[in-house]
């Protein structure tokens, strides 16, 4: 049942008999290891207890060496099963602490009366562990089911322990009966079982309305629990074994009825989702199967997805599966501002509307006083991040760019400075005649927090040499990000699409990013940037359509399986398309984005700032849950105007 719990999840996740075998092996071997160690640790106590003296170890039927070997083999088999049979790495990562927790029950009764709840918590892990094994995430339905299991097990273990009330007190062992007496222990057991029923009743509130079978199952379980407690009286424990063994077997069947109701609803929902995913273009069958299995798409498959005959909505549905598998229903945003210290630039990229020559009327350089004023404004408006990029002013030395970071960080140390693309870093290296690492070290010392992803454009030289011939090439761009990642800096990545490139250039771009992410793991998010032609040397080219925007968003999500996040940059996409993109693979809208100039100079018609209320409204209207993040993807905790970074946001990639 635990396997079905994870496998029938929403969004649907591909599963196999191999995975079912893996989960069954994990359950059997973990329980066997824990039971064997419990018998080893309790062998002396069992020998003194008339009720347990007939067990195999104290009775001499099995030797200590045999049981120890069995425990070791079971523990190793449990860990091996998580590595060999389950579809993601979380079970292997968690296998040792989970096994330690299971084994810990054997010591619990020596120091706490809550050992019964420890045992219940150990069995609570079954539905949660199966969910994690298949989906790689933790969600409410298996947690609520797990709570019901924990309370059920703790309750009947308390009843069972009533048999050893006098022995436990004489031996100094801890249990609820030994602490509270038999009447008090039976009341606690009854409360546990009442809590179990409440958890089962609450499940529809966190999952979905469930059918008649589910509620009939709850009713059957309730009647059986009442009968179980009627059998065991404080003055008559003669029927404990009947209550413990016989009634609990029947209760298990009742719980199976409850679960069948849950499974029925899960199956219907899974069927609706599966039908939607399977109703794809016939040529998408193999790609669909790979996506549902969590397998990587090839270069050729990526190029194929750009073919017009492949329906956009089918690609979007597949991308949404990956998006929800990684990030659930969350959609992230931050409160940020932009700073472009100068628009004077030595380069003349054909797609750029922002740059200016030194003598143009529109050329500018922001003085230090105004830079600090921007920092003050950002902090007063609750910004957690300042995004800093600009032109390469041929009369400004590296120290001027370094000083921008230094004065802002000294004045506003809590404001994260995401600054200077690899194009600027490469320029700084030329100015200083030093290495990328030396440049980055000076910037970090001044207060740099992370790198933006700009300057990537299109990596392939066939395109890059035509649109930005003289600035940092693809290999230099990669070397800078590689160096930054090796230093512990995080960064983003972008792609400028919709100009002179072909679909295969885009896929080549994505594959190269994926390869570097495999190597370093330092990229946080990928941002597809839609080309805006106005006021550029490519103004004869039409702006990309919303259909191309959404297709590129979805394909990016499908190809970049090792990126945690895909961002729908509302400044360039437009608010409506960005909102739709949250169902086409994107899980981030960027932020409030004060003082953005580069894309507005190229004709972007979006607002120059968006309020938090508007961002959250857009996210909620799209059916997502808004989550404020900082630059490094930690949840932001706010108390009025004050804020701090909270827990890191965990995805199935991380």
From TrEMBL:
Pfam families attached to this UniProt entry: CofH_C (PF19288), Radical_SAM (PF04055), UbiA (PF01040)
GO-annotated molecular function: 4 iron, 4 sulfur cluster binding; 7,8-didemethyl-8-hydroxy-5-deazariboflavin synthase activity; metal ion binding; transferase activity, transferring alkyl or aryl (other than methyl) groups
Subcellular localization(s) per the UniProt record: Membrane
This protein's record includes keyword Iron: yes
SUPFAM superfamilies per record: Radical SAM enzymes
Keyword set, alphabetical order: 4Fe-4S, Iron, Iron-sulfur, Membrane, Metal-binding, S-adenosyl-L-methionine, Transferase, Transmembrane, Transmembrane helix
Family matches, as Gene3D superfamilies: Aldolase class I, UbiA prenyltransferase
Membrane-protein topology: Multi-pass membrane protein
Pathway participation: Secondary metabolite biosynthesis
Cofactor: Mg(2+); [4Fe-4S] cluster
Residue stretches making up the Radical SAM core domain: 331-564
Any Gene Ontology CC annotation: membrane
GO annotation, biological process: menaquinone biosynthetic process
Main location: membrane
Superkingdom of origin: Eukaryota
Membrane spanning residue stretches: 20-41, 62-84, 90-108, 115-134, 140-163, 184-206, 212-231, 243-263
Family, per entry: Belongs to the UbiA prenyltransferase family.
Name the UniProt record assigns to this protein: Aminodeoxyfutalosine synthase (AFL synthase) (Aminofutalosine synthase) (Menaquinone biosynthetic enzym e MqnE)
């Amino acid at each position: 049942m635990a396997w079905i719990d994870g496998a029938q999840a929403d969004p649907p996740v591909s599963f196999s008999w191999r995975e079912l075998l893996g989960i069954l092996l994990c359950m059997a071997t973990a329980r066997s290891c824990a039971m064997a160690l419990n018998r080893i640790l309790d062998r002396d106590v069992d020998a003194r207890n008339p009720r347990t003296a007939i067990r195999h170890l104290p009775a001499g039927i099995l030797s200590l060496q045999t049981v120890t070997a069995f425990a070791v083999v079971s523990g190793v088999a449990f860990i091996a099963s998580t590595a060999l049979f389950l579809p993601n790495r979380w079970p292997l990562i968690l296998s040792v602490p989970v096994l330690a927790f299971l084994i810990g029950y054997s010591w619990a009764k020596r120091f706490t009366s809550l050992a019964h709840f420890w045992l219940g918590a150990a069995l609570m892990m079954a539905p949660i562990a199966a969910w994690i094994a298949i989906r790689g995430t933790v969600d409410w339905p298996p947690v609520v089911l797990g709570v019901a299991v924990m309370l059920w097990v703790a309750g009947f273990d308390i009843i069972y322990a009533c048999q050893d009330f006098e022995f436990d007190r004489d031996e100094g062992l801890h249990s609820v009966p030994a602490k509270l007496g038999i009447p008090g222990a039976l009341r606690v057991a009854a409360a546990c079982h009442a809590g179990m029923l409440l958890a089962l009743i609450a499940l529809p509130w966190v999952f979905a309305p469930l059918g008649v079978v589910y509620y009939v199952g709850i009713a059957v379980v309730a009647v059986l629990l009442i009968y179980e407690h009627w059998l065991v009286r404080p003055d008559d424990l003669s029927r404990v074994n009947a209550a413990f063994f016989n009634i609990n077997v029947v209760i298990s069947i009742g719980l199976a009825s409850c679960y069948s109701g849950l499974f029925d609803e899960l199956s219907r929902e899974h069927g609706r989702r599966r039908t939607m995913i399977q109703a794809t273009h016939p040529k998408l069958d193999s790609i669909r199967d790979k996506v549902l299995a969590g397998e990587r798409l090839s270069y050729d498959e990526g190029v194929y997805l750009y073919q017009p005959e492949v329906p956009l909505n089918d690609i979007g549905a597949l991308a949404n599966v990956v998006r929800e598998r990684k990030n659930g229903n969350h959609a992230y945003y931050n409160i940020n501002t932009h700073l472009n210290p100068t628009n004077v630039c030595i380069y003349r990229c054909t797609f750029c509307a922002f740059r200016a020559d030194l003598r143009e009327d529109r050329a500018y350089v922001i003085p230090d006083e105004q830079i600090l004023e921007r920092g003050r404004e950002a902090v007063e408006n609750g910004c957690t991040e300042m995004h800093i990029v600009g032109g390469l002013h041929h009369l400004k030395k590296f120290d001027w760019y370094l000083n921008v970071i230094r004065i802002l960080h000294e004045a506003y140390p809590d404001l994260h400075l995401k600054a200077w693309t690899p194009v600027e870093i490469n320029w700084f290296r030329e100015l200083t005649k030093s290495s990328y690492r030396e440049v980055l070290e000076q910037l970090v010392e001044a207060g740099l927090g992370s790198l933006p992803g700009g300057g990537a454009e299109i990596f392939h030289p066939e395109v890059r040499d035509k649109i930005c011939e003289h600035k940092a090439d693809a290999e230099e761009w990669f070397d800078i990000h590689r160096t930054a990642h090796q230093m512990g800096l995080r960064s983003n990545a972008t792609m400028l699409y919709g100009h002179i490139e072909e679909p295969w250039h885009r896929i080549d771009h994505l594959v190269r990013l994926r390869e570097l992410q495999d190597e370093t793991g330092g990229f946080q998010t990928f941002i597809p940037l839609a080309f805006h032609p106005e006021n550029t040397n490519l103004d004869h080219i039409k702006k990309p359509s919303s259909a191309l925007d959404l297709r590129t968003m979805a394909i990016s999500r499908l190809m970049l399986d090792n990126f945690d996040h895909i961002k729908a940059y509302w400044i360039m996409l437009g608010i409506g398309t960005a909102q739709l993109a949250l169902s086409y693979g994107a899980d981030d809208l960027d932020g409030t984005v004060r003082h953005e100039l580069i894309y507005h100079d190229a004709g972007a018609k979006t607002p120059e700032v968006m309020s938090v209320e508007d961002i959250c409204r857009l996210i909620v209207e799209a059916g997502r849950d808004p989550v404020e993040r900082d630059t490094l993807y930690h949840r932001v905790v706010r108390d009025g105007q004050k804020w701090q970074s909270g827990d890191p946001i965990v995805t199935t990639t991380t």
